[in-house]
Amino acid sequence: MSEKAxxxxxxxTYEFPLVTGSEHEVAIDINDLLEKTGAITLDHGFKxxxxxxxxxxxxxxxxxxxxxxxxxxxxxxxxxTFLEVSYLLIFGELPNKAELFKFTDEIKKHTLVHEDIKKxxxxxxxxxxxxGVMASLFCSQxxxxxxxxxxxRSAEGVRLSIVRSLAKMPTFAAWAYKNAVGHPVNYPDNSLxxxxxFLKMMFALPAEDYHVDPVIADALDKLLILHADxxxxxxxxxVRMVGSSKASIYSSISAGINALWxxxxxxxxxxxxxxxxxxxxxxxxxxxxxxKAKDKNDPFRLMGFGHRxxxxxxxxxxxxxxxxxxxxxxxxINDPVLEIAQRLEEVALKDSYFVERxxxxxxxxxxxxxxxxxxxxxxxxxxxxxxxxLPGWIAQWxxxxxxxxxxxxxxxxxxxxxxxxxxxxxxx
Length: 428
Ligand code: ACO
Hints:
Elements: E1 4-9, E2 12-20, E3 26-28, H1 33-37, E4 57-60, E5 65-68, E6 71-72, H2 73-79, H3 82-91, H4 97-109, H5 116-122, H6 130-139, H7 141-144, H8 155-181, H9 194-203, H10 214-227, H11 234-244, H12 249-260, H13 268-281, H14 286-294, H15 315-331, H16 336-350, H17 352-356, H18 363-373, H19 381-402
Antiparallel strand pairs: 1-2, 2-3, 4-5, 5-6
Helix pairs in contact: 2-10, 3-19, 4-8, 6-8, 6-12, 8-9, 8-19, 9-10, 10-15, 10-18, 10-19, 11-12, 11-19, 12-19, 13-16, 13-18, 15-18
The protein binds acetyl coenzyme *A.
């Protein structure tokens, strides 16, 4: 392949270098495009734009491949733990035993949040969506740890912020839930592991013993691993973009939580269950809903279907579909929406509308069914996604910072009015 790409504008040829990634993906380096040609690129939704070079996650949407730092998602989901995967994403290598113990211990030391956080929580009405509450509580760490605002913080200082983020996120998530149901908050129990601790903060009631069900804790750990990173998606790009202004890690990640919230991104997992429930209540006629999704005059979309980059299958969806069967079986739950989901998938995968557009179930299609089986309420589904995505956001923020990337600032093609005179109106 030629080492250069050629671009002809107004009869003049310009050359741009090609950049090749470690998995042989090719990019045209247009860093000096504007300077050389006076033109910019226009790419709505950044469908063809590489915003960075990254060594964290590789995915191939056509082949359905997802790897964190070179390790396949299938192997990690089967054999590793969420904290091990977090370490891998953030620090680049799997931890050895001593490193993992140290990391786990550091996290345990920071699970408590400042008591004044409760005052902030008390200010939210119980109608507040837990995603908004969590984003606010997460960002409030800038107030409790003002040293995190220093853009030139030492590596140890950054590590402390990373540990605090991972340690406190489950506490914020559980407290956001407690606020929604109007219950008193629970404090973290550090005798438990990461997921057990979260489950106890969520579900323990005053004066009652709470025992973590290992089936539930293991299923949750696997779900967190599957969500841990997904290269330059909407929320991750947001984290990098905000961080590029040298905003603190807490404000950058809080922005990522907000970006994840939307129904076209992480919010889809909540929408899937709402959709499946509506289909069930409507009599379970799957064909009717498939036709609605295909009708361009109907705003309805099949939630949990389609993906910006996966055009063959989403490897996470395959693992989650199997996990949904396992978990529901082990917990002895017979959820009628699982059957509706399976029928929807079966019909859609044979329908030419979905086949031609390469629309397959994505990670969110079955995750809600597992969350429901684990007792997680529907408004918390996207919060669970955020808990899982946290190490990815941290790793991407850290990489952006270490690579000394410039501030993110896209261009535009202006389509508004050309110069015109101001005509004063009589304001008296
Ligand atoms: N149901 C029905 N039709 C769909 C769906 C769907 N779920 N998804 C895409 N299409 C159709 C579009 O209408 C469009 O059709 P057209 O070519 O006739 O106009 C075509 O497929 C391409 O869709 P786009 O929206 O252009 O694809 P894009 O890559 O921009 O969007 C997205 C991807 C947002 C995920 C989309 O498929 C969607 O809205 N899915 C439902 C929401 C969802 O599940 N989101 C979670 C994504 S995974 C994640 O963020 C973790």
